Amino acid sequence: MSTYKKAYIAGGCFWGMEELFRTQPGIIDTEVGYIGGENDHPTYRNHPGHAEGIELTYDPNLTSFKKILDYFYRIHNPTTIDRQGNDKGSSYRSAIFFQNEEEKLEAEEVIKIVNASKKWDGEIVTTLEPYSTFWAAEPEHQDYLLKNPNGYTCHFERFKESFV
């Protein structure tokens, strides 16, 4: 039986987040998709209310939910509502999809730490949303930046040092 866990986050275009998370210690697998929206079986062209999210499978012996959130806050701008880079709309919101009360409390704690750091201009606007079904994106969106190394991304490490 696997001891791996999953985390669900959204912070703009899913391609860039996937590319950066795939190399983080303890991350076993990444999958991009849609979460938090109105329709079943969403697609790239039809995902009302869904965020472009990422499912991270991780080994809790090598990393933690808090460390994942720490990195999340270093690679996207969590102070812009429904926007990352040139991408605008609720699909590109900053969101954490918590699976239980422990994850919700840890997310709230990390948000307080990041806000207190004053490293970002403005307050964190990340939404905390209860986990809903994660729908995997189409195959052409999986591992997109591996397949298209010069593809668009607005994600990069803005801060090298950890918040937590």
Automatic annotation (TrEMBL):
<feature type="active site">
    <location>
        <position position="13"/>
    </location>
</feature>
<protein>
    <recommendedName>
        <fullName>Peptide methionine sulfoxide reductase MsrA</fullName>
        <ecNumber>1.8.4.11</ecNumber>
    </recommendedName>
</protein>
<keyword id="KW-0560">Oxidoreductase</keyword>
<feature type="domain" description="Peptide methionine sulphoxide reductase MsrA">
    <location>
        <begin position="6"/>
        <end position="154"/>
    </location>
</feature>
<dbReference type="Pfam" id="PF01625">
    <property type="entry name" value="PMSR"/>
</dbReference>
<dbReference type="GO" id="GO:0008113">
    <property type="term" value="F:peptide-methionine (S)-S-oxide reductase activity"/>
</dbReference>
<dbReference type="InterPro" id="IPR002569">
    <property type="entry name" value="Met_Sox_Rdtase_MsrA_dom"/>
</dbReference>
<dbReference type="InterPro" id="IPR036509">
    <property type="entry name" value="Met_Sox_Rdtase_MsrA_sf"/>
</dbReference>
<dbReference type="GO" id="GO:0033744">
    <property type="term" value="F:L-methionine:thioredoxin-disulfide S-oxidoreductase activity"/>
</dbReference>
<comment type="function">
    <text>Has an important function as a repair enzyme for proteins that have been inactivated by oxidation. Catalyzes the reversible oxidation-reduction of methionine sulfoxide in proteins to methionine.</text>
</comment>
<comment type="similarity">
    <text>Belongs to the MsrA Met sulfoxide reductase family.</text>
</comment>
